[in-house]
């Protein structure tokens, strides 16, 4: 007998009855075998003796057990007449099994409801780790959004304001999905925040993140990561891309537009201990737009396993270059969903848009 779950939707005495019936059906308990007395079983399972006694009374009424001297409960053998006057025959086993399966279904429903509540709480907590607002910065329009595939996930983005003119921009994608990825995402956020109390060298920050993540995670855990620092006084964006999908920088030239890709300048973080990273710089001219995203966006799939792709994303970016950062993110999400045509979201989806205004 194992300890019943007090948090289950099924009363404890019914859980005890379920265990006895299951044991009889599966052969773990045999006809004629004694069951523990009320007091000893209650003490073993750390429950009330009244609960055990109630379970035994109901089992006796159903013809599952018979009580001899009041201290031991005996399983009836074949053909034994119970206190209720019924015979325990082979047909009762089928009834026991049906009742046991019903109880199992109820337990499964209760467990799933509990898991759903826990997942909802975890999702709410994770959302608080993402930026709740974008502090105003002169000459800059920026926003971000993230939507996990499984309630919680491993995508991450952040904005860190160092001064009136300096802003840190981060986006990352932890390997895997669900709770394990979410936990590593939270760890990664803490590591980044601990390294960015002031503006510094993005390459050195990424190198430190790589070491910390490598030392605190298993061998199959890693993350792609893009980290940049923008100086509003000069328009210079200094960045390090650690194996992440190359963000796009859209530039307008009259009626024409071009896209610059900010390619990786180092491997993913957390996979190898000794890695070298470099920092690169690009000047954002007034009107230039930075779009960073995780592969859940570019690899959004429809029911035919066809990917949306970076080409479609670039076309959308060029066609909607005048939208605000928030409106552009909404358009990206909407178009990716429209392409998927209702297919299940298979990966976390995150987008960051940063525009230098006129």
Describe this structure in words.
The chain has nine helices and 13 strands. It has helices at 12-26, 38-45, 49-61, 90-129, 178-195, 202-216, 295-298, 309-319, 325-340, and strands at 34-35, 66-67, 73-74, 140-147, 155-161, 166-174, 223-231, 236-242, 248-253, 256-261, 280-283, 289-293, 349-356. The chain is elongated, with a radius of gyration of 31 Å. The protein has 358 residues and is α+β, with helices and mostly antiparallel strands. The protein is 39% helix and 21% strand. The chain folds into two domains: 12-121, Winged helix-like DNA-binding domain superfamily/Winged helix DNA-binding domain (Arc Repressor Mutant, subunit A); 130-356, PPM-type phosphatase domain (Phosphatase 2c, domain 1, 4-Layer Sandwich), CATH 3.60.40.10. Helix 2 (38-45) crosses helix 3.
């Amino acid at each position: 007998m194992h300890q019943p779950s007090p948090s289950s939707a099924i009363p404890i005495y019914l859980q005890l009855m379920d265990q006895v019936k299951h044991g009889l059906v599966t052969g773990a308990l045999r006809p004629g075998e004694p069951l523990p007395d009320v007091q000893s079983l209650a003490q073993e399972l750390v429950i009330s003796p009244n609960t055990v006694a109630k379970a035994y009374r109901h089992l006796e009424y159903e013809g599952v057990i018979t009580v001899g001297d009041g201290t031991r409960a005996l399983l009836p053998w074949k053909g034994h007449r119970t206190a209720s006057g019924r015979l325990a025959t082979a047909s009762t086993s089928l009834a026991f099994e049906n009742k046991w399966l019903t109880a199992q279904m109820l337990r499964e429903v209760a467990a799933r409801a509990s898991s759903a509540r826990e997942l909802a709480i975890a999702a709410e907590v994770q959302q608080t780790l993402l930026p709740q607002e974008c502090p105003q910065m002169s000459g800059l329009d920026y926003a971000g959004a993230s939507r996990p595939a499984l309630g919680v996930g491993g995508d991450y983005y952040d904005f860190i304001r160092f001064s009136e003119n300096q802003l840190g921009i981060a986006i990352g994608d932890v390997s895997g999905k669900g709770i394990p990825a979410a936990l590593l995402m939270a760890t990664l956020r803490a590591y980044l925040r601990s390294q960015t109390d002031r503006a510094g060298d993005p390459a050195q920050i990424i190198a430190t993140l790589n070491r910390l993540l490598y030392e605190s995670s298993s061998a199959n855990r890693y993350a792609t990561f893009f980290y940049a620092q923008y100086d509003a006084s000069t328009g210079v964006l200094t960045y390090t891309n650690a194996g992440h999908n190359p963000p796009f920088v859209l530039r307008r030239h009259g009626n024409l537009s071009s896209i610059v890709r900010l390619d990786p300048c180092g491997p993913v973080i957390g996979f190898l201990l000794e890695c070298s990273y470099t920092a690169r710089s690009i000047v954002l001219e007034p009107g230039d737009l930075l779009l960073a995203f995780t592969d859940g966006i570019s690899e959004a799939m429809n029911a035919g396993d066809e990917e949306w792709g970076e080409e479609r994303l670039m076309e959308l970016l060029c066609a909607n270059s005048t939208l605000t950062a928030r409106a552009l993110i909404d358009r990206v999400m909407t178009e990716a969903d429209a392409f998927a045509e209702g297919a299940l979201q298979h990966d976390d989806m995150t987008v960051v848009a940063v525009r230098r205004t006129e």
